[in-house]
Each structure stands twice: as C-alpha cells, then as structure tokens.
Amino acid sequence: MQSVGRPTQPQAVSATPDTLTGARGLLQDEVLIFELGGWDKTGVDLAEPELDASDLGDLVRVEPIGLPGLSEPETLRHYVRLSQKNHAIDLALYPLGSCTMKHNPRLNEKMARLAGFADIHPLQPQSTVQGAIELMDELSHWLKTLTGMPAVALSPKAGAHGELCGLLAIRAAHVARGDARKRVLVPTSAHGTNPATAAFVGYLVEEIAQTDDGRVDLGDLEAKLGPDVAAIMVTNPNTCGLFERDVIEIARLTHSAGAYFYCDGANFNAIVGRVRPADLGVDAMHINLHKTFSTPHGGGGPGAGPVVLSEALAPYAPAPWIVHGEDGYSLDEAPAGAFGRMCAFHGQMGMFVRALAYMKSHGTDGLRQVAEDAVLNANYIKARLSPVMSAAFTGPCMHEALFTDAWLEGTGVTTLDFAKAMIDEGFHPMTMYFPLVVHGAMLIEPTETESRNELDRFCDAVLKLASAARSGDADRFKGAPFHAPLRRLDETRAARKPVLKCPPPG
Amino acid sequence: MRYLPLTTADRTDMLAVIGAASVDDLFVDVPAAARRTGLVSLPAHEGELEVERDMMALAAKNRAAGAGPFFCGAGAYRHHVPASVDHIIQRSEFLTSYTPYQPEIAQGTLQYLFEFQTQVAALTGMEVANASMYDGSTAAAEAVMMATRVTRRSKAVLSGGVHPHYAGTIDTMASVAGVEVVAQDPAVDNEAGVIAAIDADTACVVVQTPNVFGTATDVTAIAAAAQAAGALLIVVVTETVSLGLLKSPGAMGADIVVAEGQSIGNGLNFGGPYVGLFATREKYMRQMPGRLCGETVDAEGRRGFVLTLSTREQHIRRDKATSNICTNSGLCALAFTIHMSLLGEKGLRQLAALNHSKARQLAAALGAVPGVEILTPRFFNEFAIRLPVAAAPVVEALAGQGVIAGVPFSRLAGGMDNVLLVAATETTTTSDIETFARMLNGVLA
Amino acid sequence: MRFTKDHEWVELSGDIATIGISAYAANALGDVVFVETPEIGKAVKAGDGFAVVESVKAASDVYAPVSGEVVEANGALSDTPEMVNQDPEKDAWFAKVRVSDPAEVEALMDRDAYEAFLATL
C-alpha cells in the first residue's frame, strides 16, 4: 500500500495565527513605491537625445526630483497587489444608492481605444476629425431624443460641472432680459452639490421643505417662489428614490414666477425611455454618462455631465457648438450668445464613445428595458427586506430603495455598523446617512444589471445580518469589518495631523 | 439584450413577490401626461458586431496622430504610453470601483492616490497636492478661486502667455464669482508683464511656463513681486513632461501650481478625459479644492489611507463648500501614476531631454525654410513660428498631403493669423521632421 | 458665563470677553480636528461668523456673541484641536474680544436658561 506523499485532509487547528509578513494568503502586504527604492531605476527604454539642453542655461532643473522608478515586472506586481484590496462591480452587487453602479460593458472600452478616437488631437484640422465631430453630433441626437430637449452642451466634465453649466445658462438668460435674480430654491433632500453649485454661481440658497411622503412640499415652494427666484433645482426621481408626483405642477409654478426648472438628472436611469424630461417642464438637466450610460466610475472619475437645455436656454450654451454645414461638421469655438466655456477643449470624448456604444447596444427598446429592470430590481429588494427593515416610505420606489434605522433601535447597532458588517459578507455597503432627510438612511440601488440570483444572494445576506443584529449579536457589527484588507480606519487622526504625501527619502 | 440578466420568467416571479400586476404599476407616480407608452424614436438594439462596425466606420473618418507626421501641441501632447499602463487601468478592481468612501475595501485606490499626490508634489516642487482635478484648465480656474479665498481679494491678472482656452475657462468661472480678470494681450515672451498690473486688489497673477507659445520663463522675480504685494503666484503648466527638464515652479516661488497631466499615461482622446494636477504650499492646504487622500492607521494599528479633510467639500458644507467639484479624474490619475512609476526620475529626465532634442531638431529644420521665422526664444518641446501667409490654410493644405502641421494660433484666439504653434515629442522621427520641412517649403513656395 | 442659541459661551472680565463653544456643541460635533481662530485686531459684530471649527463629519462657523475688537486668539487650538473636546468651556477658549457694549453680554442666556433651551432641542 502506498503510504507516503502529502496529506490530503486538512488538520484541525484551534486559532488563526497572525502571518509573519502581514500578507493574508493571496492578499499581499504592499508598501508605497517610495519605499521600494528605485531611485536610479527605470521601466522604459528611450533613445539617446541627439542635442543637449545647453540652450536653456539656468532654466534647467538640477536638484533631485524625488521620483522612484520601477521595472515593468515590479510595476505590474505593485499595482496588481494594490488592485486586490479594492471592491468592484465585477466582483459583486455594489448597492450604492444614487451612484448607479451598473455593469461596464467591455465593448465600450475597446471602442474608446480605437486609434481614430483615442489618438486624435483636439486642435488638429477639423477636416481630419469629421468622424469624431459626427460622433458627438450623434450622441447629442440620442440625448436630445431621449430627453425631448432641443439642445445639449457636451463639454461639462462631471455631474457637478454640468450643474454649473446649467445654472450659468440660467443666469445668462436672466441677465439677457435685464432681470438678474438672487435666489435658488433647493429641496432639503438634494445632493450637496446642488446648493454648493448655486452658491458658487452667487445665488442665495433657500431650502424647500419636504412632505411626509418624501416629495417637494408644493405649499412651501409656492410660498418661497417670487420675482427674485432664478431657478429651482430638483432631482427627479429624487434622492429618496421617489418620482416627484407633482413635477408638472412644480414646473408650472416655477415658470409662472419667471424662474427656470433645473433638474438634477443623476437618477435618469430609472426613467430613460419611459419619461422625457421635456414633458415634465424641465429647462436644464445634466446627465451623468457614468451613471445612466455606464461609462466606468474608475475609482472616482473621470465622469461626464452633458446638459440638455430648453429653447429658452439653448442660445446661451457654452462653446464649442457643433455646426453641421454643407462642407461637413465643424466646431464653433466662439459662438455669439454663449456664456463662455467650461474647459479647454470639447469635453470627455473618451466617455462620449463609450456612452454611444452603450446606447447603440441597447437601442430604444433596450433602454426602456433598462429603466424597467432597474425599477423592478429595486422594488424586489424593497419587498424582500421590508418585512424586517423599516422602509422610509410606502408605495413603489423607483430605482433605489430607502430604509431608515428605526428597525435597529435597541440593538446597539448603528447604520454604520450594519454597513461595515456587509463588507464581511462580501458586499459593498449601501449608501449611508444620505439623504439627510431620514434618520440613519440606508439607500440601496441594485441597477438593472443584477441577476435574480445575485439579488437573492444579496437579500439573503442582508436578512441574515438583520437577524444577527436583532438577536443581540452586536459584537459582529461593532468591530466590523473583520475580514477586509484593513479594519476600520482612524479618520480623526488623518484629519488632525494631515499626512498627504510620503516623506522624502533619507 | 446581453447586458440585462433578468429573464421574462424572473420578471413575472419578481412582480409576484412585490405584489404588482405589471411593471407599469411601479411607475404609477409618473403623471399620466408624461407617461410614454411607445418606444422613443431611435434605432433598436444592436449586437456587438454591429455596434463595432458602426463605431469603426466613424473612427475611420478621423486621421489618427500616429498615422503620419504630426506636430500639434498647444495643451495636448502625443506621447508614447507603455502597454502595461493601459493593461493595469483596465483591471476590474480599478475600472469598476467607486470613489473610495469605504476605505477598508478601497485601499488599492487610496494608496495609488497617495502615491499620485506625492509624485505631483515632487514634480511641481510644492508641499502638498490633491488627488486630481478634471483637467488643467478647470484646475487653473479653481486656483484663481482659491487665491481669492486666501487673500480675500478679487482681481486676477493673467499673462499674455496663458493658453487662451484656459483664460476662457477662468473667465467663465470668475464672471460668476465676482472676480475681475485682467487678461494681458497675447505675447510670446512677456510673462513678467503681469508685474506692472499688480495692485492692492490683486488676489493672484497667473503665468504659464512653457507658455502657449512654448516660451519657458524663470518666474522667480514674478513670484517675489506678487508676494510683496500680498498676491499669490499661480503657475500653469500644460506640458507636464517639461518638469523633467525645467526648474520646478515650486523652486521659483510659486504659491499654487496647476498642470495638465495628460502627457503622462494618457492619450490625446480628442481633448478628454484628461487629468488636472493641483499643488500648493502646506499653509494653504485647507483652502485647496478637490479630494485629498491622507495616511492613517486602522483599528489594529496597520497603516492605511482615507479620504480626508472632506468637511471642505459639498457633501457636508453644501452652500459653504470650497468648490462644487464632486469628482476627480481617478482612472486618469492612476494611468499617470503607473507611467510615472515606470519612468522614475531617471526615465522622466531622459524623456524630457529627448523631447527637447526633437524640438531643437524641428526648429533647425523649419528655421531653414525660406520665409519662416522662429518666434520662441527659449522652448521645451514646442514653439511658435511666423509664416509669410495665414497659418490656417497652410495647415489645411499640409493635412491634404498627410502632414498635421500644428495648431494655427487663430484657432485659439483672434489676431496673429500667421502664427503657427508646433510641437515635437519622443514620437517624432527625423523623417517626420524632414517631410514637414520639405512640404512646408513646397506650400509656401 | 453666558450662552447663545448657537452654542457659544462668553465670560466677561472687565471689558474683555472670553469666547468659546459649549460642551454640548463640542459633543455634537464629535472629534474636533481643526480650529480657525480670528485675526487679532479684527473688528467683529455680534452675530458675525468669526471662527471655524471642524470635526471629521462637520464644519461649523462660530458666531461672535458680542461686538468688539479681537485682542487675543487661542493659538494652542491649531496644534491641539482635541482640546475643544477635552475642555470646551475653559482651556479651549477661541478668542478674547474687547467688548464695545457690555449690555450685549447681559442679554444672553445664563446657564440655567441655556440648559432649559437645550432640553427643548
């Protein structure tokens, strides 16, 4: 009988000892590049220059810069090790409410890398970039048709940049008719960028109250509207995940006060193909291409925030404007009436390519299905979790389900603890403590790209955690996460004595 | 539809769990007048093959920079990006993750942002840097806003060397913030002209080196003059590779440095997405816009990183935030960091020296073309030339012959119709330079 | 010691008012990480924002409870902002102001009134 060789059954062990290196199996401990030492190393091979820099005299940089280098294999190791400390959509459902973390199709990545898009210069002769301008025009056509709006400014580089663009157009329209106004009304549930943008543009920000069922309080709106109100900024569907039932009346009241209706389009995913913002009376709305049209979030950007504009605001759209004439396409860099420019060039072309590839893949039929499945998935989660967790509002939600922390009362577990425990179960936490209008908010947005299996896996995990919380197992939550690359981090220390870079060597 | 996992049976089952008869029941809050029953008038869905075919047809109508001799700069530069950069940024964990608000499961993103901040501070010669901005132009506008907060003054003086599109972006932001912008006329070599315009209301002076005409300037005296008057010096850099050869703005006394980081790790992409670099002195740290990543420890004392000083941001301060910016340019910053790690100081200096050498070769070749005058006295990798005729038609004519000759200044601002901005990088070959000079000679003859 | 509804406290000695934030405010803010004190010589009016206090989760303006001229600022707070949590109503004072109208202090709540006010929040 053969009796040598490796044992094939694991031995019983009592406790998990710490590792000797700080690694955890496949998860490597990785230092900063500045600690790896490559002060005289490089991972590139470059030709020798033929001429020197003697013409530059004492403009030449002599002192050491302080940039370490790595060979290519070391570079791959370093960044692959870092990558493994991140959660990702490709790993599991990523239920961050209001962020729309949906699948990022890889076809879009491939298309954005075609040399005809990736390797063209913003200022090369327009006769040599006809396809690029045509693509921008086609993207504009899709965005205008889906929203029912007559114009779109493509150049804003993110949602908040789009808000700025929209408010600048509104301001320009008021100034043009000699009616500069002072106030902007924003509901209490709005994302923080709304009041920040309005204040930046020089408006006084006034809050509009919310009703008990999570919508704009029409009475309060009417009371606060007046001849000095420039605009209202309303998110629809709103940050509670609800459609503003009275939106048409909101628009009517706003317009009759001579103000404009800025709609924050962050949640357009819930209604694309089923509702056109133009039919609601919207004057300006930014569209986060990185949400609704699935350009990657990339760990925090780059985004893209085109703004659709009504007839009243279109004349003030920022440069450049796309012109389609007899000689083909061109970009007008200084159109009369434009309020200025948002950035140096024409916007996030790389994101335009991805968004258009996404739209063409779905088509008009698929985009409508996107909205329906996004709303269906959110309501399914709401239905499965509501028996245990406290839903903030009754009735159907749109693309995200909002819960309060009322159901955790007496357990000793907070919203934050609960979210951190979700990490241990393999899921990214939901959005916490936003919107501010409900207590201990937990905002769950699954998106349409989750399968029934993954939705059930997620709901099962949350329900198991919920019973653990209610059965007094607070320890599981207070110290969570236990199984992540790091435990909870000391944010107070980071803010009191900020260390924002690695100290220089030596 | 290949991206939608639910089957018809799933949808039916799920509606039953919800207790809704149909999906329309979930949209009851939409006013009847706004409910669309039919499909929006746009094309139906397409397979990967068809989408790829459509997109490739559009791409084929563009002339890629790499397809032949190419000399455009003026704020965007064609450099070689190592293959490993694009491979790493497409890893799921980087590409498909969100802003690192949950630091326990986002250390990958946070650590590279910390490395990015360190690299940017070193490169610019400054004490602190943020985790990136949308691009160089918006970073410049934010720098002006920051200077008005620091000095509590409301005037910005811009040199005639600042990229006109940057000046336009600053102008748009300044107009709403009540900041007066004094922009000097375009000038090839007069960054120091701002000194005469500094007064007691001046919050900042904005200069660019190398400037839009390619002129490199020692701004030490400008910094001293600005600071003596209680104003800040903002230095704009549109070609980050230049910092591998030229004195850093920090060493010359800059208070804020903003740069376009596209040259490192990022392609031309027809103008975006790019990555804005923003660095300043430590004492102004809390006035700095944008996200910041800081070092700390976890509950077991292990080193880790978090987003910090976020009370400055709009989530908390709302209408009192330092800026309305909510996002950075994360993935482009990652590409920057990886490419910079591959280069290291050694590689960056070699790359910068090579760029400068190619530009000197180009200047020698174009300067020998009859009627062409080199305008830029000291340059890094781009310079301005004056042609005997308007530049735009010459550029069109050369494009017809397969040479992308550069950016006519008239594309950026009025006046100087005969001025052409040309750039050379490590991607430019001797043969490209010879072809350009020969064809330019032919068009001008 | 007198208090405002914005949770500042004032202690008057002669014509010099020492100003800080209440223990209630410090506790509500959580871990204080940064304090910006006013410049010496600055003229302030009652109700003006004249200092800033930041925690990890919140940033608040501190309003001058009285009018006058800033004569001293507590520099120790910039290095050790945690003092605001440890000793808010004594060592962690923010600034001293030479008051122009001592009656403004008298008009503020005393401790009993302030505590009654807190009970209503």
Provide structural commentary.
Chain A has helices at 72-83, 106-112, 115-118, 130-147, 159-176, 193-200, 218-224, 247-256, 349-385, 415-424, 452-470, 475-478, 491-496; strands spanning 151-153, 183-187, 204-208, 229-235, 260-264, 284-286, 307-309, 321-325, 328-332, 401-403, 431-432, 442-444. Chain A has 506 residues and is α/β, with parallel strands linked by helices. In chain A, the strands form three sheets. Chain A has a seven-stranded mixed sheet, sandwiched between helices. Chain A has a three-stranded antiparallel sheet with strand order 10-12-11. The longest helix of chain A is centred in the last third of the chain and has 37 residues, at 349-385. The termini of chain A are far apart. Chain B is built from twelve helices and 13 strands. In chain B, the strands form three sheets. Chain B has a seven-stranded mixed sheet with strand order 1-7-6-5-4-2-3, sandwiched between helices. In chain B, a hairpin with a 5-residue loop joins strand 8 (293-297) and strand 9 (303-307). The longest helix of chain B is centred in the last third of the chain and has 38 residues, at 330-367. Chain B is globular, with a radius of gyration of 25 Å. The termini of chain B are far apart. Chain C is α+β, with helices and mostly antiparallel strands. Chain C has one domain (2-101): RNA polymerase II/Efflux pump adaptor protein, barrel-sandwich hybrid domain (OB fold (Dihydrolipoamide Acetyltransferase, E2P), Beta Barrel). Chain C has helices spanning 23-29, 76-79, 83-86, 103-106, 111-119, and strands at 2-3, 8-13, 16-21, 32-36, 43-44, 49-55, 59-63, 68-73, 95-99. Chain C has a six-stranded antiparallel sheet with strand order 1-2-3-9-8-5. The longest helix of chain C is centred in the C-terminal third of the chain and has 9 residues, at 111-119. Chains in contact: A-B, A-C, B-C. At the A-C interface, helix 13 of A face loops of C.
Give the helices and strands, then pairings.
The complex is a heterotrimer of chains A (506), B (445) and C (121).
Chain A: H1 72-83, H2 106-112, H3 115-118, H4 130-147, E1 151-153, H5 159-176, E2 183-187, H6 193-200, E3 204-208, H7 218-224, E4 229-235, H8 247-256, E5 260-264, E6 284-286, E7 307-309, E8 321-325, E9 328-332, H9 349-385, E10 401-403, H10 415-424, E11 431-432, E12 442-444, H11 452-470, H12 475-478, H13 491-496
Parallel strand pairs in A: 2-3, 2-4, 4-5, 5-6
Antiparallel strand pairs in A: 1-7, 6-7, 8-9, 10-12, 11-12
Helix pairs in contact in A: 2-9, 4-9, 5-6, 9-11
Chain B: H1 8-18, H2 48-59, H3 83-89, H4 92-95, H5 107-124, E1 128-129, H6 136-151, E2 155-158, H7 164-177, E3 180-183, E4 202-208, H8 220-228, E5 232-237, E6 256-260, E7 276-280, E8 293-297, E9 303-307, H9 314-317, H10 330-367, E10 373-374, E11 382-386, H11 391-400, E12 407-408, E13 419-423, H12 430-444
Helix pairs in contact in B: 3-10, 5-10, 6-7, 10-12
Chain C: E1 2-3, E2 8-13, E3 16-21, H1 23-29, E4 32-36, E5 43-44, E6 49-55, E7 59-63, E8 68-73, H2 76-79, H3 83-86, E9 95-99, H4 103-106, H5 111-119
Antiparallel strand pairs in C: 1-2, 2-3, 3-9, 4-6, 5-8, 6-7, 8-9
